[in-house]
Amino acid sequence: MVAPVTLPTRTPWWLWPNLLSLDAPLVAVVWLFMLAKTWGVNYHPEHEYAVLALVVWAIYVVDRLLDGMIHGDSTRCQERHQFHLRHRRKLAPLAVVAVVAAMTLVLNYTPMAIYGYAAVAGFLISGFFAMALFATPDVGEIPYSKNVLGGLSFAFGTSMVAHVYLFDKGIVDLLLHSREFIAFAVLCIMNISAIDLWEHASRTEDEELKAQDELALTLPLVLLGGAAFLFARQADGTGAGPFFYAVLTGAALLFVLNRSRARFSLEALRVLADVAMVLPVLVFLGLR
């Protein structure tokens, strides 16, 4: 039985994109743009951005509805889940419409090679939802496996929409040989994990646990930033430098948020974590 849901009388304007699951599609479209430019995709139809945005939005709506139904009576059910539960009669049909619209565009306008990529993406997403449905860690635990699958799914789904137009390459090249994909995937995993780590730290008064949570985020972000800087320096002349500096910027912004998280509410941190994934496009455009 799902607990009754009550939202604040006045919702801050900056929280609405998160409540409506519009933040993730925006992040996906921004990074698709950077990947397409970095890989020099000469022909990349605008409708691919619409396909990506529709699919990402639908997945996030379904994920939040499932989380809300499964964890509706626990502290794991946050305001965004409650909002989706309140409006599930409208959001669920809209998610179906979004998927149908995306499939229509794919069937009519996207290269046949997309189906191979889609099979891999479907496998990753199925694993993610399987963990959401059947893996129920305690409230005090952080679902690292789910976060890794979620970050990989997001990064692969975003990257494949541009990579499919590199007709001399394929799925194996994307997964194993693309530094851009690997760096972006790690950034996505860090973004998702950051939110869980911040929520976990806020539920305890144990300073040792808080320090462990901070280190669990700080160390990977420093390593990612260092790797992105190294890749950017090695990419001189290839056109990939701005992309890796964008990854470095995203990691740096998450690092700053982690160090100053005590100044913000959890909902504000969630929104700011998405902002940290969007702002790197300014660095990318400036360096190009």
Q: What can you see in these coordinates?
A:
With 288 residues, the chain is an all-alpha fold. It has a single domain (16-287), classed as Orthogonal Bundle (Farnesyl Diphosphate Synthase). It is built from 13 helices and no strands. The chain has helices at 16-19, 23-38, 47-70, 79-86, 88-109, 114-134, 144-163, 171-177, 179-202, 207-234, 241-259, 266-278, 280-287. Helix 2 packs antiparallel against helix 3, helix 2 runs parallel beside helix 12 (266-278) and helix 6 (114-134) packs antiparallel against helix 7. The longest helix is centred in the C-terminal third of the chain and has 28 residues, at 207-234. The protein is globular.
The beta-strand count equals 0
The CATH topology, please?
Farnesyl Diphosphate Synthase
The level-1 CATH class: Mainly Alpha
What fraction of the residues are assigned to beta strands by DSSP? under 5%
Helical residues, percent? over 70%
Number of domains: 1
Mean pLDDT: 89
SSE string, helices as H and strands as E: HHHHHHHHHHHHH
What is the count of helical runs? 13
Structural class: mainly alpha
**Main beta sheet:** none
Second rung of CATH, namely the architecture: Orthogonal Bundle
